[in-house]
Amino acid sequence: MNGRTKLHRVEKLKTHGPCSDFETRGADSRFSHYFYLEDPRTFRRRYGLVIGAELVTGCLTIAMTSVLLLTTYFSNLAEHQAAKMFFFGCLVIGLVFFFAKIEVICGRVKLVWINAGIYLICLLISLTTIAYRPPTTLYFIALLSPLVGLLILNSHRCRELRQKSHELRLKRQAITAMLKRR
User: Fold this and answer.
1) SS (HEC) of the chain
2) Do 143 and 66 reside in the same domain of the chain?
3) Which of 33, 53, 145, 160 could make an SS bond with 61 (beta carbons 3.0 to 4.6 A apart)?
């Protein structure tokens, strides 16, 4: 493109008013700008690892604590009772953990205390099983996984995720309040 056509296009933009950010974007970013408050690809790229690591650590914590409980406290229970307790206990605690994490991502930051509480309860339960002399590797994994989960919750990136999701929630609320006023 030569200098004249560039100048002509700049003059044309000046006569039609300021060019909005939407018109200068590519097709992919136009789509994300139209439907989302922020581009979801950059959000996932930045915070996806933290979200995934916390979910995996939460599942590992719940599972290792449950196995540790089965081998220590509930070792004299019947097998079918122990299996039912293991399955339903892990299912309920896992669902509570998962939905609390989803709500934190949606912007309700105070629900992170549910996840921290699950980590602390699992840590305290694991600590008290030392009296039964559990298998060493199982015991250390059951102790280490809630500590890693708490470390992830306290990391800079996870705090940044909570702050960003809270900001997006406030923007969504402002938009819905504006639309309700119309």
Assistant:
1) CCHHHHHHHHHHHHHCCCCCHHHHCCHHHHHHHHHCCCCHHHHHHHHHHHHHHHHHHHHHHHHHHHHHHHHCCCCCCCHHHHHHHHHHHHHHHHHHHHHHHHHHHCCCHHHHHHHHHHHHHHHHHHHHHHHHCCCHHHHHHHHHHHHHHHHHHCCHHHHHHHHHHHHHHHHHHHHHHHHHHC
2) yes
3) 145
Determine the pLDDT at residue 27: 55
Kindly tell me if the per-residue pLDDT of 150 is higher than 50. yes
Number of domains in the chain: 2
Question: At 143, is the pLDDT very low, low, confident or very high (cuts 50, 70, 90)?
Answer: very high
Domain span at residue 166 reads: 38-181
